[in-house]
Design brief:
405 residues; alpha+beta; Hypothetical protein af1432; 13 helices; 35% helix
């Protein structure tokens, strides 16, 4: 039996990129492997070929109900404003939301799935408002960040779980939420007040809003950029600040994060080549969180780095790119082996990092996943490597090596 879903007045997105609008979208599920669809009355902001480059799309109704069209292929473009194709599935956003970037079993995590989804939707609403030339409702974002702050403060030593919604090939939605979570972890370790943490998280949630003004093909371009493309890409901080200045309910400190998050501690960044404390504290924190999440996330032009390799990259920029005091707090909080990552011990066993030891960044507290013979550990065994003379980390381990199913 064919299952039909009809969605009217649909805005079509891919991550931060607004693709277009269609009067009616019809989905016919034919088999477990997928179905066919029709976009009727489609008007694209770009040429329709832009859609053909996408893997998955976000379909948003006027009532803010959001669907993910997964693994689609355009099969017929013979009629103007009418596209036919096939796809794997269409799901409401809630049913396909993945809450955790790393494989974490039976461990307390910092952010609940519900909070992550609420934050994700807040960023989505901002994009929708900007695309429609509406004034951003900053209070909505601040309300979400208050929840983020509460959860981070309630579980300061829990594993930092980051979103990884693979249904979007433009990662900017989730990146903003991840950056806010990482920045909060840094800020709380620095002793910022709750009000300061809320301002910090709000700024980080909106730090890349200026990318809405940058063409998607430029954001995801593989290979080197031309001089003109480089200039255009570097314009997004000013675009973001200009957008946020018009918004309601945001402090100037939060707005400045959008403007300054690409400034570098020794004055080599952009757009103003600010140095040291000329860059606001929130912006200096955001820059560390921004680069770390970008390095550990798959992008069209490169695969994600491991947390270990990403932190090595960050530390190579100490005193040049990042505030060394903030970077020190970050490393003590996340360690060279961040909570939620897998490591191999010197006896060939595999362990999950639970939390780090601030005074010994290479000797965190771990939980054994597999013993030295490669067998799954049937009992919970925690080891504080700072107190274990016989065991130590010899390297990172992959998800494939750690999985027990």
């Amino acid at each position: 039996m064919i299952e039909t879903i009809t969605i009217n007045d649909v805005s079509v997105y891919s991550g931060y990129s607004y693709i277009g609008y269609c009067k009616e979208f019809v989905w016919n599920l034919k088999t477990k492997q997928g179905g066919d669809f029709i976009f009727k009355g489609l008007v694209c902001e770009y040429d329709f070929e832009e859609m053909m480059l996408r893997k998955d799309l976000l379909l948003r109704t006027p009532d803010n109900i959001e669907y993910i069209l997964e693994d689609f292929i355009i099969t017929d473009v013979s009629q103007i404003g009418r596209l036919l194709g096939s796809g794997k599935s269409i799901k409401k956003l809630e049913s396909s939301f993945l809450a955790v970037k790393t494989f974490i079993e039976d461990e307390k995590i910092v952010l609940s799935k519900e909070t992550q989804l609420e934050a994700f939707k807040a960023v989505s609403d901002v994009v929708h408002q900007v695309k429609n030339d509406a004034v951003i409702n900053g209070e909505q974002t601040r309300a979400v960040t208050r929840t983020l702050v509460d959860e981070v403060l309630q579980a300061p030593d829990a594993i930092m779980n980051l979103m990884d919604i693979k249904s979007f090939d433009d990662y900017t939605f989730t990146h903003n939420v991840n950056v806010a979570a990482i920045a909060l972890s840094i800020g709380s370790s620095m002793g910022l007040t709750k009000d300061e943490l809320e301002e910090l998280a709000t700024g980080c949630m909106l730090h890349d809003v200026g990318k809405i003004k940058i063409p998607i093909d430029l954001l995801n371009k593989e290979g080197s950029l031309s001089d003109d493309e480089f200039v255009e890409l570097r314009s997004h901080p000013r675009h973001g600040y200009d957008i946020l200045v018009k918004s309601r309910g945001l402090s100037e400190e939060s707005r400045l994060v959008a403007l300054q998050h690409h400034e570098r501690f020794q004055g080599t960044g952009y757009p103003a080549k600010l140095r040291g404390t000329e860059i606001t504290l929130y912006s200096r924190i955001c820059s560390v969180a921004d680069v770390y999440d970008a390095l550990t996330t798959d992008r069209p032009y490169r695969l994600a780095m491991s947390p270990y390799d990403a932190i090595k990259i960050l530390t190579s920029g100490v005193d040049r790119h990042f505030d060394p005091d903030i970077l020190t707090v970050f490393i003590r909080k996340f360690s060279l082996y961040p909570a939620g990552s897998f490591v191999r011990l010197n006896d060939a066993s595999i362990a999950l990092v639970l939390r780090n030891n601030p005074e010994s960044v290479i000797r965190p507290v771990v939980k054994l996943i597999k013993d030295s013979s490669g067998q799954k550990c049937s009992e919970r065994i925690e080891i504080n490597l700072a107190e274990s003379k016989g065991l130590y980390i010899v390297g990172q381990a992959s998800f494939a090596e750690a999985k027990t199913f």
